[in-house]
Structure formats: C-alpha cells, structure tokens
Design goal:
Largest sheet: none
Order of helices and strands: HH
Shape: rod-shaped
Number of domains: 1
C-alpha cells in the first residue's frame, strides 16, 4: 500500500507518480494482471528514498533541539 499520490506532497517522485497514474488510466483491466507493476516498484523505491531523507532531516533537527535542551538544563543548574 502506498500513501496518497498527490504531486505536491511528493515532489521527488512526481514524474513516476504521473507515469503510474497514466498507466492505470491507459490499462484499466491489464493493471490487475501486472501491466503497471514495474512502475509500482519504482514508485515504492522512490517513496522509501524520500522517507529516508525526511527521517535524516528529522533526526538532525532533533539532535539540535536536544543540544539546546541540554545547554538550557546546564545553564539553569548553574544559576538556581
């Protein structure tokens, strides 16, 4: 199962999303028999890569926040 295929939420995968949707429109019955499977695999890989980038960015942001919090705690411990 994939997330909703909205282009504005997945700019990294926009081209593959368009191809996948076009394939489904062009082959309304064949899509059930594997006509669009290769595009689906590409789309899944793109979503995984996109998620990995988001995960890395969130981790970096949380590291910065954790450092700020530790600095604040040290500061308040020194000056009661």
């Amino acid at each position: 199962m994939h997330p909703p295929l909205t282009l504005h939420r997945h700019p990294m995968c926009a081209e593959i999303i368009e191809q996948f949707q076009k394939c489904h429109l062009d082959h309304p019955v064949k899509k059930f028999f594997g006509e669009c499977t290769e595009l689906k695999i590409k789309l899944d890989r793109c979503f995984r890569a996109e998620k990995a980038l988001k995960r890395k960015a969130n981790f970096e942001q949380s590291k910065k926040l954790r450092e700020r919090l530790q600095a604040y705690r040290r500061e308040t411990a020194e000056n009661p």
